[in-house]
Here is the input.
Amino acid sequence: MRMSRPGPEPESMVVQLQDDQRIHYLAWAGGPGRPVVLVHGLARTAWTWLPIGRRLAAAHPVVAPDLRGHGASDAPLKGYDLESLALDTLTVMAGAGWGEAVDGPPVVVAGHGLGAMIAVEMARLQPASVAGVALIDGGWEVMIEATRLLPDQLVEAMNEPPEVLASMTTYLADRRDFDPASWDDDQEAAARAQVTERHAGHVGPVTKGSVVRRCVAAMYGYQPLEALAEVACPVTLVAASPGTADDEDERERRLAIEDAQAARARVGLPAMAVHVHEGAGHDLMRYRPDELTHELELLAAG
Here is the structure.
């Protein structure tokens, strides 16, 4: 196994919400720069951000929460709409001493997939708490158009084949084989955090199916053109582009970026900074960690 890039280990912490639910998060004390909040995607955990947290911590304090129902956070029956998930994350920020609720500094929020939508909602709810938003391969597209699937079809498509979940060994091998060159200790830690061991050595997702369905419903209700037209702070869009220039899905994604830019321009907001990573898959934290860290540092410096 290729070793991870040297960097500080995060501290595992918990904040209690007003409804007594607990949200787990990873924290890096970091340097003197602007604080950064990293929000993971659907059915992922805070550990997916390890490569970025390590790199950013040289100059910035960083937190990465487990969304409610994910990872080591509590999984109540409700609260999976974007506003509730955003308020959870704002509470984590306040616990770290950041944001307007505690007279702390504003932060840069980077969200991946579902996390990008949550980052946008955070900026809408508390604009004085958010100095910049980074949309990491999500947050600018209408879900039904981006996936060409109905919500139930997307949930079904996310199910792992039984043979992959036969053991921790088979599960980790499947994740490694996505891209062996980028597999390291951090990627193994992230993969292990997404599953739990069950009977006879089998593994299953940590995120319950009911949580996934509720989060997917929230994602399909997200209206990106309306939402991004209400975010006054700088926005950076970072897109993965695994296809070729003549790929229909790629063309549609580029057109969606143009639509989002136009929606912001109509209300007098500045254009988003756009970075496209050719030949990279959705998990840019794994496939382009150095480049993604640099793009977040540019946003934080602004």
Notes: The first helix runs from residue 50 to 56. The mean pLDDT is 95. DSSP finds twelve helices and ten strands in the chain.
